[in-house]
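mind reviewing this stuff:

——
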Amino acid sequence: MEHGYADFRARREATVWQRLNRILLVLLIIAIWLAIVSLFVPPYKKLMQSRTEIDNLQQQVNEQQTLLARQTREVTLLKTDVSYLETIARDRLDLMKEGETIFRLETAHAKPKLVAPARK
């Protein structure tokens, strides 16, 4: 009977060591995975920041191109269209033709709100 119990005990100890080896292997794999991830996260964040910056710069370029097109159109009109030149000159110099009535509409400025003093 002693022989059977010793065999059982040896098998039980072997399975405990096998379980501990498996747990150690899993922990080792997790540690390696975390090390690899930690190596790639900072460059990925920098890549995302660079892409955001590129998008913002592209938006600025588009706005500047729109402004350039508008101003180029205005310069072309000032050089070629006499009636446009006359309209712009009269508007900026506040001049008018005989018999012409000019109405100027100004936007109403919002009154500043009074802030009640804070109670202590």
User: Anything to note?
Assistant: Residues 48 and 120 are 47 Å apart (CA to CA). The longest helix spans residues 2-80. The chain has one domain: 2-93.
